[in-house]
Amino acid sequence: MQLFNRDAISGAVKLDQDALAAIEDGFRALGRGDVVQPPILSMAIEESNGEVDVKTAHIRGFERFAIKVSPGFFDNPKLGLPSLNGLMMVFSAKTGLVDAVLFDEGYLTAVRTALAGAIAAKYLSREHSRRVAVLGAGEQAELQVQALELVRDIDTVDVWARRHDAAEAYAERMRAQGLTVNVHDGIKAACAQADIIVTTTPSRTPILTAQDLPEGVHVTAMGSDSPDKRELDESVMIRADAFVCDTRAQSQTNGELKVFSRGARQGSNDSSGSPGFGADGEPPFRIYELGRVIAEGQRLRVSDASITVCDLTGTGVQDTAIANFALGRLMG
What we know:
Layout: E1 2-5, H1 6-12, H2 17-32, E2 35-36, E3 41-45, E4 50-59, E5 64-73, E6 87-92, E7 98-103, H3 107-124, E8 131-135, H4 139-148, E9 156-160, H5 164-175, E10 180-183, H6 187-191, E11 196-199, E12 218-221, H7 234-239, E13 242-245, H8 248-253, E14 287-289, H9 290-295, E15 308-311, H10 316-330
Parallel strand pairs: 1-7, 8-9, 8-11, 9-10, 11-12, 12-15, 13-14, 13-15
Antiparallel strand pairs: 2-4, 3-4, 4-5, 5-6, 6-7
Region (Disordered): 260-281
Organism: Modicisalibacter ilicicola DSM 19980
InterPro entries: NAD(P)-bd_dom_sf, ODC_Mu_crystall, ODC_N
């Protein structure tokens, strides 16, 4: 068994085309049905404003599978500590023995999350997309744009964040990377000219509505990854010409589709369903999964005016894919 720390891992794994291809291959395998992926094991630690997720998947034909433990303790910045942490245990798919432990402190999760956003944009956004609106100003707000540059010629970023000073600090960091960055006080203004919108917040209430969407935009929603988080108003999904998620099951429990579940409508006296909802609680639109879009070559954007939405909750297949990729780089 080999142990690798964050410095070694971050030195070997970057946001590059090879890493992008590794995550894309993982999604493609998921779309073909070549993945065994159990539900997320999730535990809340409410008294510390924390949560812990455990994700795993086996990709048939891969030498190894990973089990990732990912804590998020969101009061940590007040203590001078990072909010996110974690590690990946990597096992042989032939013997079940531990091959390596990757003490990445959440680095690989951040990388594979950003790459998933880029993959969504590769298949769903307009090919000539150059301008991205980012809602949020944290780590993913920065990494998502860097990853997008692998698939689109991004030159302009419009940013909104709840804290104006955080948005200004983000803008300075991104300008240092050669991008034109505009800071906005409102979401509608930030999104007005966007080719791509990326939501990267821990919001518990919707922040983006259909009225904020310009014609032809693609939306990637990253922040809703637990039952109590939401970034998209249901009008966004209803308005979309194509709605895609990483997995329907996860989107219905942790992601944006949970608003359409029967449980989300309990207490309503409207037996016919509230506006936009079917009587059976099903959403009034077709749901696509990103892996199948890739594996089957589905073309969901039928014109430059199409609006597409992708809800990414983070999957175990991404963790196994990035862990195998990392070990390939680390072990030669």
